[in-house]
Amino acid sequence: MNLNKVCIVSSKRIPFARSGSSYLGKSNLDLVAQCLKALVRDLSLEGKGVGEVALGAVNKHSYDFGLAREAVIESGLNLSTPATDLQKACGTSLETTIMLANKIALGQIDCGIAAGVDTNSDIPVELKKSLTDRLSKINYSKTMGEKIQALAGIRPSDLKLRFPAVKEPRTGLSMGQSCELMAKTWNISREEQDLLSYESHLKAANAYEKGFYHDMIVPAFGLEKDNILRPDTTVEKLAKLRSAFDKSDKGTLTAGNSTSLTDGASCVFLCSENYAKENGLTPLAYFRTGHSSAVNFMGDEGLLMAPAYAVAQMLKREGLTFEDFDFFEIHEAFAAQVLCTLKAWEDEKFCKEKLGLETKLGSINRDKMNTKGGSLALGHPFAATGSRIVGSLAKILNEKGSGRGLISICTAGGMGVCAIVEK
Description:
With 423 residues, the protein is an alpha+beta fold. Helix content is 36%, strand content 17%. Strands 1, 2, 3, 4, 5, 8, 9, 10, 11 and 12 form a 10-stranded mixed β-sheet that branches. A two-stranded antiparallel sheet has the order 6-7.
């Protein structure tokens, strides 16, 4: 069976904002609609249908059960466009990209929009289960007496609210605490982490200065650029910050070398070569393949180490090595997480015993990694990071004129998603 080549044609995103700032009170729909409208307008798709829109969010209200479809209705696309909600923590919009790319490759659809959105500024605050159980009992009571009896059972302690937390339900540890354990296992120093964070900000600032993000970012709600980026940061400034998760003198993760809670949305347009030719579209790059893996983070592996496995498995399947890549987009959830992954690929024992390889995967050229800045500098709205990276990498390859790039993203739940983009 001949597969269609999958073109990456265009991407849009709104500026990523520190949670609790510019997008305070704005909903997931408000945010994702902004970049979808811009993409639809840019590609002259108003009133037209596309094969499918697939998007997701990690933090969702119960009324957002049809977020993707509502986003289509807001976008200006023809309402014949189907929509799918998908959620895979921080790998969400890379997974939506993979899903639509596969459908295009198989000829099931000829084009689609993959997207992701998240906000911590309009969070679904939860009621205690004891209270919701009582409220359900009231709702299903048939007589006023039964309703009053159920209502009388509510205690003051039942009224305590529960705010979402970036915490694993199986371990009770936050993602930062889990990454601290990884840093200790792999002997990742504070200095290494601060340097990686500094380099991320420096690269992102240079990319902004040279106009790289100019045609990709759409102003939204008074914000024109990412407000987490600190062009004036230095290694010395980062070194002064206190540890955030391990408060002892052994803690190495700080607010400076960990991603900030972020609000934002991004999207990317994919299509077949025939669709591109018929509609006068020029591909920036091509989406080759994707892969997902998971690890036992409750037993023998670190929570955010799954990308080390996913990338190794994907490269083996595709018959490629690190030497075959010109760019590496490694999601920077934490500087320590990136450094642990890189160190694992360089460790012969790990690669043989854990990855089942004959030798170590090897080192990557750090000058080729996150060349336009990463999540530490730009921000990380959980579900929006994947399509942000796909769009940026496609543009990087288009500017070079040829080449191949690797994407690696860690997620909650001990999972990892990766992909290959080439031109």
